[in-house]
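Structure, all two chains, one model.
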Amino acid sequence: MFEARLLKSSILKKVLEAIKDLLTQATFDCDDNGIQLQAMDNSHVALVSLLLRADGFDKYRCDRNVTMGMNLGSMTKILKCAGDKDTVTMKAQDNADTVTFVFESPNQEKVSDYEMKLMNLDLEHLGIPETEYSCTIRMPSAEFARMCRDLSQFGESIVISCTKEGVKFSTSGDIGSANIKLAQTASIDKEDEAVIIEMDEPVTLTFACQYLNYFTKATSLSPQVQLSMSADVPLVVEYRIPDIGHIRYYLAPKIEE
Amino acid sequence: VERQDLMKEFYPEL
């Protein structure tokens, strides 16, 4: 038996919003520790890794490991049926071929359940080693979203260059070029609004704008985003979801040939 | 010409 209850369905709605442009289907792996999802996008240049810890749920029970292959389009349709203040419970029997979503309004006057067929997905899982990155940049997630949106008007790629002076985001295209420089926040009063740069070695890497824009669909999950970079390895864009877990996006850098 | 590597070129398949 698997049962996971969240007081706010909005978290699950936002998680789905954050992955549905990249993935059409995904496997939710549930065990004692919580719910995990790892999947590559169709073109296999980006990877999404989601963790929702068991202790972040209002109620969590998982007697046996459960693997639920879900069509994210169908899941989106179902979650649209939940009010933002509704609680949501996901339930599945052991070895079941369906999952049930139960939505309850705050006053318990409306209870709805939606059963969805599960899919047998044969998806590749990649082993991502614990990595020490040369640069990590923390910044307000809304600022990162704004920059990606602004720069993607000019070019298809964004060059991210991190040095001890700060971090520079650049692009160029038919109409011209654009550069945005961010310096580390001088005095941190509000952590959510700070830009914090940790750099062991300077790094410059190029990434596809389109994917960075997909990642920023997670903005509403967290006030801050963390970018981790090392030479010649994928960028990690991490949104920490308060009290429950994180969503991480990995993106392979572009390479000049 | 820019090329984009695949995830699998960086991380091993489990």
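Chain B touches chain A through 14 residues (CB under 8 Å).
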